[in-house]
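Re: the 304-residue chain
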Amino acid sequence: MADQKNDKSARPPAEKKRGWLSRIAPGVRNPGKRDTPENLWVKCPDTGEMLYRPDLEAALWVTPSGNHMRIGARLRLLYTFDDGKFERISTPIMPEDPLKFPDDKPYPDRLKAARKATGEQDSMAVAFGQIHGQPAVVIVQDFAFMGGSLGMAAGETFVKAAQEAVARGVPLVIFTASGGARMQEGTLSLMQMARTTLALNEVKSAGLPYVVVMTDPTTGGVTASYAMLGDVHLAEPNATIGFSGRRVIEQTIREVLPPTFQRSEFLVEHGMVDQVVTRAELPEKLGSILKTLMMGRERLPPAA
């Protein structure tokens, strides 16, 4: 009998399945882990305030304090194109780990982890659609994919996007977000700065606009190449934009830089960015700019 009292399996099956709350208050269900959504609350980077996730999603991931949080390629494309409709353009497949880069974690494993986390093949995604009625090819860099770093695959994707824009006779738009070149690919990564610049020459030779929207952060080799070659440069509020890091510059010039240094608003004041535009206003602003730049130009038929 003593063994039976201590044996939990001896309880009736119905009692075993019932939670403590249902035993003391019949008819009231005890919510389990499955009933509680994960990541229901998101911490504001500026104030530390806990924000209700559905409200944040409805606000396009812009916090009440005005912080434009980083978003992935899929959301950026949904927010940019009319009615969230677009045609994805496949990302070229490139050799992985061409330099057999030695690291504490194999480079192919890092790529697999990034692909699993973002759902993208690499740091760049491309799509075709309409922005306020204006057709365009759009490139999006995803900072969540290895810091949006520029490697062979990203460079080849950029080249393909430029070729698609020329073939379709439409403008090319890019949302930049990157920490710079991908160190695991060494010189091959740095070569993409020149390749993307040459691809842009084809776009401009075709008389097509190239518009850059800089998001947080846009730094390194990306800033030193295609991020600063646009016909028009827009930026989201308070985005970090620059080449070298703030601390490196301060140590080099031996001066303390202002708090607004390398921010979107600072770059507008110094002529490197044309306008700061909020995320909600970007589609309308892009549509207006593209319509103006394409005025009087006959569009080529879409590529087969």
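The two ends are 81 Å apart (CA to CA).
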